[in-house]
Amino acid sequence: MQTLMIPEIGHFALIIALLMALVQGVMPLAGAATRRPLWMAYGRPMATGQFLFLAIAYACLTASYLLDDFSVANVANNSNSLLPWYYKASAVWGNHEGSVLLWSLILGAWTFAVSRFSRELPRDMLARVLGVMGLVSVGFLAFVLVTSNPFERLLPNVPQDGADLNPLLQDFGLIVHPPMLYMGYVGFSVVFAFAIAALLGGRLDAAWTRWARPWTNIAWAFLTVGIALGSWWAYYELGWGGWWFWDPVENASLLPWLAGTALIHSLAVTEKRGSFKSWTVLLAISTFSLSLMGTFLVRSGVLTSVHAFANDPSRGLFILVLLGITVGLSLLLFALRAPRVSHQVAFSWLSRDALLLINNILLVIMTVTVLLGTVYPLLLDAMDLGKISVGPPYFNALFVPLTVVLCLFMGLGPLARWKRTDGRDLLKRSWLAGLLALIIGALAPLLYRGEWSLQVSLGVLISLWVVLPMARDLWVKTRHSSGRLAGAKRLSLAYWGMTLGHLGVAVTIIGVTVVSNYAIDRNVRMGVGDSVELAGYTFTMTELGSRRGPNFLADFAEIEVRRGDSQRTFAMTPEKRLYLARGMPMTDVALRPGLFRDLYVAMGEDLEDGSWAMRLQYKPFVRWLWLGGLLMAAGGILAVADRRYRRTATARDPEQGAAAEPKPKEATA
Amino acid sequence: MKRRLLLLLPLLGFLVLGGFLYQGLSMNPFDRDSALMAREFPAFELTTLEDSERTVDGSLLEGEVTLVNVWGEWCPTCKQEMPQLLDLADRGVRLIGVDYKDTREKGREFLAEFGNPFEVNVFDPDGSLGFDLGVYGAPETFLVDADGIIRYHHTGYIKPEDVRETILPEVEKWRD
Question: Which of A337, A389, A507, B117 meets the CB 3.0–4.6 Å disulfide criterion with B85?
């Protein structure tokens, strides 16, 4: 079906959005520099208008997909009339052009949100924040319009049907994973803009941190969920049960996550103690820069990866220039202006400040480790030293020990006091937890499998070391004359958020440890009537057949599974699909999820005698990986709900707003 | 002053990294994304679509620059691509088809309906040649030189402008 004007309307809306972004990027910044309130006032309406027109453009592209308008090249290349409607709607971001448009739309949405929810910001600060976000948006919208126009038509040779969405992407994962991830990536643009605004204005005080923290936490929570979803998707979709591959694109999402994790901790110090200021600003710039670099790595095709939609050097060059301008100018500004916002506060080497400093150093080392591993093949290639690939051995050998050390300090962090902690007091509050962690950790592999393993012991040990001291602290703090519940209510939401977040880390570590050490995996040949035993489960093939889906043909196997001698059985139905439009075969895994184990059955190849090569897997505790991620994200969100972030809103003076807060003397020191 | 220099470090680090990324961009992407580039066309021995008695092999590709197009009746985009392939054949380019994961009957119907630019069509019902070529869909097109070496790879639909802008120049380049 051809729709007359929809793509043109979308294209036009995109151009208007670019012009509005330009005004939003120039006027408020110029106004803040020359102290002209009228110019500064451009920020808010432009943010609203830009978001509106981006939404129109995005809606137009979605409409072209839903209406099967194959005269639009983007639709013809990535959709098909047989595709179910929900995949048509999400196929919009299953390709290069559409995903950059989604990126821009989300940036517009964050900008709009900032313009709505920051009414108590001082006018010049808001003007600078919106201005910086406007400039970032100019860059991306220009990128879309110049190199990646999603509304390009295929005229006059309109294809009769589309080439179809890559079958790998035809999954629930496509619907949720990219939007979440982008919400995280792009969300860091807010704290980035705050950091640049602080450098430009030469002002970074406790109020600044109180504004910046909630935005950072929310972006971080989205990124956490996005990464967890990506890992979950890869696990069941790629057909062999891996959950993290150290693929360049996975690393590209992990990099801003690690830097962002350092940032939310450094922000805590800046808010509570007024120190680490220039460090916080540098982390804010780095986190968003790494998000941008992730976009560059994925979109340019510089590194080969399963995620690369398009290897187009001209696009790569455009993003690299964009990256160079954004990051280069920010870091230059940082080098010139950081002394104006920096501030030294003394603290003892045994204090929460010091522990958080160590946390930051470790997280930065981890970030650099992953960054080096990711770009190392490129560096060698560029220097003509040959082509190599850096695989999981490198990453595991460095990342795992660093995580262990990080967790050792993490256990103590919540117990320590700001500025100075009494060593004996810290010991008193942690020795029992340490001892328990040590004993349980040492025994855990023996009890679970009857065989000792250093890796498992260490994994359990550090998880407990993170959780137990916190649990003790919680027990002490909820002591209250009218009962535990009243005591629990008295604790701040920020405290609960921190507890939940750290618990999430421990849960993920348990998951990683157990599934890496105790997963069982068997490749077998099975025909109808054959039985195979695996980890106490009996798998019997009862039927082989074929069926027709909306846009694929499938061979399926019906497997009856029985646990031990139990009477009850359940069925698992893996499929091997052939997607018609691309003639591409796909494995559709059968999963039996559980909190303590997953059963995983995938069909391999059709063997001559009517039997099939089957892959059976037993994956203990694999769900804990993603459960931990969700807990971390929930912790981040919970902390945002803390009362102190609402205080500025309720106590604000409409005339002066928070601008009336005195400038700290040290700001110019 | 020392502190100033320290603050410049992040910028310097980024500039170095950016330089490498820039260099990465200008490296030939085909070195990375097609393992078959500059390799010999994979060996095959299959019957032709036209004649189930006639068997062809790699010698089919020797002696002249040839475009090998992987297509199938089930592939709607292949129908869209036909006018461009016919155009190429008119301009004197030698084309060989690979009828991929198809039935003989449907493949013949397709050529009868949409035209046949191919000198001959290799019939690949199980997709074995397609597999060796690393094809994951159709259409895909390979340029093979007179010595049977793959010189260029085009994934997906050949657009009308691709004929003049990329395909013909590539053919010319490898003719000498």
Answer: B117
Q: What is the identity of the amino acid at B100?
A: Y
CA atoms within 13 A on the CB side of A387: 6
Q: What is the pLDDT of residues A235-255, one digit of tens each?
A: 888 766 788 888 778 888 999
Q: Measured between alpha carbons, how far is A658 from B3 in angstroms, rounded to an integer?
A: 32
Helix (H) or strand (E) holding A106: helix A96-117
Cis peptide before A178 (omega within 30 of 0): no
Asked if A265 and A252 count as a contact pair (C-beta separation under 8 A), the reply is no
- Contact between A215 and A109 under an 8 Å Cβ cutoff? The reply is no
Q: Check CB contact of A551 with chain B, cutoff 8 Å.
A: no
Identity of the highest mean pLDDT range in A288-302, B24-38, B62-76, B85-99: B85-99
Residue A330, token pair as written in the block? 């920010």
Report helix angle A392-412 to A423-449, nearest 10.
130
Asked, as a colleague might, if the bond just before B139 is cis with ω within 30 of 0, I would say yes
CA–CA distance, A614 with A589 (Å, rounded to integer): 11
Model pLDDT, residue A385: 61
Interface test with A, best of B25, B74, B135, B136 (most A CBs within 10 A): B25
Nearest to B11 among A160, A163, A332 (CB): A332
Closest in B29, B79, B156 to A160, CB measured: B79
Using alpha carbons only, how large is chain B's radius of gyration in Å?
21
Inter-chain Cβ pairs, chain A and chain B, closer than 8 A: 103
Instruction: Find, among B120, B29, B14, B138, the residue nearest to B76 by Cα.
Output: B138
Q: What is the pLDDT of residue A598?
A: 92
* pLDDT of res. A662: 38
Hey, is A646 helix, strand or coil?
helix
Overall average pLDDT of the A308-315 stretch? 56
Query: Are the C-beta atoms of A347 and B19 separated by less than 8 Å?
Result: no
Assess contact for A118 and A212: CB atoms under 8 A. no
Of A184, A294, A182, A177, nearest in space to A247 by CA: A294
The mean pLDDT value for A497-522 works out to 93
For chain A positions 60-79, those within 8 Å of chain B (CB to CB) are: 77
Query: CB–CB of A331 and B11 under 8 A?
Result: yes
Find the residue in B nearest to A301 (Cα). Answer: B29
Contact of A372 with chain B, judged by CB distance below 8 Å, is answered with no
The pLDDT tens digits for A585-633 are: 788 889 999 999 999 998 877 877 888 888 899 999 999 999 999 999 9
For A638-656, the pLDDT digits (tens) are 999 887 776 554 444 333 3
- Measured between alpha carbons, how far apart are the two ends of chain A, in Å? 66
Contact at 8 Å (CB) between A211 and A117? no
- Closest Cα to residue B135, out of B32, B34, B29? B34
pLDDT at site A573: 94
Distance from CA of A327 to the nearest CA of B (A): 8
